Amino acid sequence: AGSYFSPKNMNLFSFNIVKSTFSNIKSNKQLFLLSVATNFIAFTVLGLFFLLFVNLNMLFSSWDKHIQLIVYLDDKISNSNKKKIELLFNSNNKIESIVFISRDQAWKSFRGKFSSKSKFITSLNFNPLPDSYTLRFASGPDRLKNIRGFSEKIKNEKGIESVEYGEKWISRFEQFMIFLRGFILTFGVVLFSGMILIISNTIKLSIYSRKDEIDLMSLLGATHRFVKAPLLLEGVLQGVTGALLSLASVKLVHLYIIFQFQGSLKSIFRGFDFNYLTNPIIYSIITTGVIIGFLGSSFSANQFLNRRNLE
Question: Residue 217: what are its φ and ψ, rounded to 5°?
């Protein structure tokens, strides 16, 4: 005679799943909304950390374009050592431009900028500044690496007093970015596990509220696939809805910051634009919502069906 849930009725399979899912959501509205709200909060917190990370990374990339290597010469440098140093500069094809600044030029520029602010500078009867070279390196993903490598190569050359490119603050910034990346990863793993547990418990409560209905479906010949499908879809909807709402929330924060502070940010950080999340991060958050919803609902559905088989 065949089952009510036979292949002949497969045309109605998708429709029945969607209908059953939304019917279940309607009857367990509070549980669904609570799960979505929890996912929304968790994804929003994670999204805000990503927003911070993206913009700090953009800011560092912007600064990277302006970093120059300044080579300060010893006052007693010989002409032969000076020529040797210049040969080292010219032999490096990563160096885009070389500007020599004499100690007299440097002192004149320094006094022009700061003499009005300090009487001490105008009272000095000697020039404390050395000759220097300002080296600009070609743009590229390895620009900072090239600057760092070349500075290490030349800093011990005879006639060079010191080299400067902001190494200390760059190192600190890089360490902070490594810490932030690790924090986001750890925080993400904790949230991932917690959200799976929340969705799993929500679906479990949903299953027990429909236990009699599921038992009736099984007696009529419903397969495990048919029973599980609405539950899996419900879990996925919880995860995706929370993820999408969080992206909208982060976008509102992004727009608020632009509206309130964009002018200040541009003036402080040389035309820096405050950016929203990148497309890969957006897609990753949505995909994570799908995976969390699927895994959470799958655990509860499989646990329930396996127990029913044992009974």
Answer: -60, -40
Asked if residue 195 lies in contact with residue 187, where contact means CB atoms within 8 angstroms, the answer is no
pLDDT single digits (tens) 105-150: 988 887 777 665 666 565 667 778 899 999 999 888 788 889 999 9
**Residues 6 or more apart from 87 whose CB is under 8 A from it?**
none
pLDDT of amino acid 171: 83
Crossing angle of helices 211-219 and 167-209, in 10° steps, is 70
Q: Hey, how many other C-beta atoms are within 10 angstroms of the C-beta on 4?
A: 11
Tens digit of pLDDT for each residue in 153-183?
Answer: 999 999 999 999 988 888 888 888 899 989 9
If you search the block for the tokens 């005679």, which residue do you land on?
1
Contact 244, 66 (CB under 8 A): no
DSSP tag of 11: G
Rg of the chain in Å (alpha carbons): 32
| CA separation for the pair 222, 76 (Å, rounded) | 92
**Looking at residue 263, what DSSP letter applies?**
H
What is the identity of the amino acid at 156?
N
CA distance 169 to 64: 12
CA of 122: how far to CAs of 125, 129, 131, in Å? 8, 14, 20
CA distance 105 to 304: 81
